[in-house]
Amino acid sequence: MIDVKLYDKETPTWCPGCGDYGVLTALKRAAANLELDPSRTVVVTGIGCSSKINSYFYSYGIHTLHGRAAAVAEGIKLANPDLEVIVAGGDGDAYAIGTEHFVHLARRNLDIAYIVMDNQIYGLTKGQVSPTSEEGFVTITTPYGSPEKPVNGPLLAFSAGATYIARGFSGDIVQLSKLIEDGIRHKGFALIDVLSPCVTWNKINTYDWYKAHSYQLKDHDPSNKAKAFQILSDEDHLALGLIYKKEEKIYEEKLPRKFVANPFQNIEVDKSIENIYEEFL
Hints:
There is one protein chain. This protein is of the alpha/beta class. The chain has a single domain, classed as 3-Layer(aba) Sandwich (Rossmann fold), CATH 3.40.50. Helix content is 35%, strand content 16%. The protein is built from 12 helices and 8 strands. The protein has helices at 20-34, 53-56, 69-79, 91-95, 99-108, 153-160, 173-185, 207-212, 225-233, 251-254, 257-260, 273-280, and strands spanning 41-45, 60-63, 84-90, 113-118, 164-169, 190-195, 214-216, 238-245. It has an 8-stranded mixed sheet with strand order 2-1-3-4-6-5-8-7, sandwiched between helices. β7 (214-216), α9 (225-233) and β8 form a beta-alpha-beta unit. α1 (20-34) packs across α7. It is globular. It starts with 19 loop residues before the first helix and ends with a helix.
């Protein structure tokens, strides 16, 4: 097995106690167990505290515009299917401004793993209400309490057609690393939703709060779609573990062979615009 220290990069600058430290450690352990080659791995992120994770994980990485990580990751995967593409970001990046891309990535079932660090608040911009904040949640942008119902990200992914859905907790690195490892190994779109507390701006959804409102799945068959729907719909009791898994042909396999047979950089490209027109018109 590869030494987990291979994936060390810059020293993280998250607030002490931030849940994202646990996610980074879990990702490194998963990568070591899978023996991921940093030169063949790309971590795509958007904007936010959690999206800094590719600055701290040794591989190729790209920071995209806010909410556009899924779209960029899809382009990378289709340009070179041989790469291991991982998306990482927060609840705001995935379930707010990036919702449209997140849904279509899930329904297309590209072979990409998406790690969402959900702290139920916008941390980088100093504590605004997020799409997963509870109704009535008081923040600097909702001084009278949020009037909106929270987005259920895993249930949204389930309804869109995601073929791997798991929920982890950054306070349980052992289980989380296993879920990330299995998600990366899964052939298809994998969502690993992580309960990752923001210790600076969210004083409600703390480590103790998540422990009190979550439970470990036991004796659950992740292929049982009806049961998975029931589990994901229960927003008062957050299940931890693999919730749903389905084997299904991935998007890359459904495309004409010439588009994904070889990595993009190995394809001999005829630069004649006339030949391109002749092929596609």
